[in-house]
Specification:
By secondary structure, this protein is an alpha+beta fold. The strands form three sheets. Strands 8-7-6-3-9 form a five-stranded antiparallel sheet, with no helix packed on it. It has a two-stranded antiparallel sheet with strand order 1-2. About 15% of the residues are buried.
Length: about 170
């Protein structure tokens, strides 16, 4: 280290331990270096990083990350419904009779246990919606799942739970 650098770092006094300028400058330079490193570790804000879900089948959900070509999911992607409102449920989905039945149903779907799922269907704890869009009444609008009453079709009068993304204000 040359004398000019020593004079900059330590001032006129070259004893590092006693010189307060050395301590102050060392902390400033160290802090700037730490901020630089932290800035390099953070993701670039100009690069969009999205996490979207695609559902190829009723039993699978695949997450695809970091694909800027896909639009971000916003609050307007799903219709917001409230209790007492008439809406439509997506055709061909499962409606569970209770919250516990819904949790059990999703466990069977995730574990690919079709026999247990069929037992739930045959026992009446779960029904499958008809092929056409079915009108439903929202009994209780939740954050993740809605309690609905099916108004028409083979399962008219059935009250159960469905995930909120399968409910729309208009027909599918």
């Amino acid at each position: 280290m040359n004398d000019h650098m020593k004079k900059f770092l330590f001032g006129k006094d070259f004893d590092k331990k006693k010189n307060p300028k050395f301590r102050k400058r060392t902390w400033i330079i160290g802090g700037l270096f730490a901020l630089f490193i932290i800035g390099k570790l953070l993701p670039d804000p100009d690069t969009p990083q999205t996490l979207t879900a695609t559902a190829p089948a009723a039993s699978e959900t695949t997450y695809v990350a970091d694909q800027p070509s896909q639009p971000k999911e916003s609050k307007t992607d799903y219709d917001i419904v409230s209790s007492g409102q008439i809406a439509y449920v997506q055709p061909g989905i499962y409606v569970a009779h209770t919250k516990d039945d819904m949790d059990e149903m999703f466990n069977y779907i995730n574990n690919h246990n079709s026999d247990a799922l069929m037992d739930m269907l045959f026992s009446g704890r779960v029904v499958m919606t008809d092929n056409g869009a079915q009108r439903v009444t929202i009994v209780d609008a939740g954050i993740i799942k809605h309690k609905i009453k099916i108004m028409d079709g083979d399962n008219a009068g059935f009250v159960g739970y469905v995930p909120m993304e399968f409910i729309k204000k208009s027909e599918w």
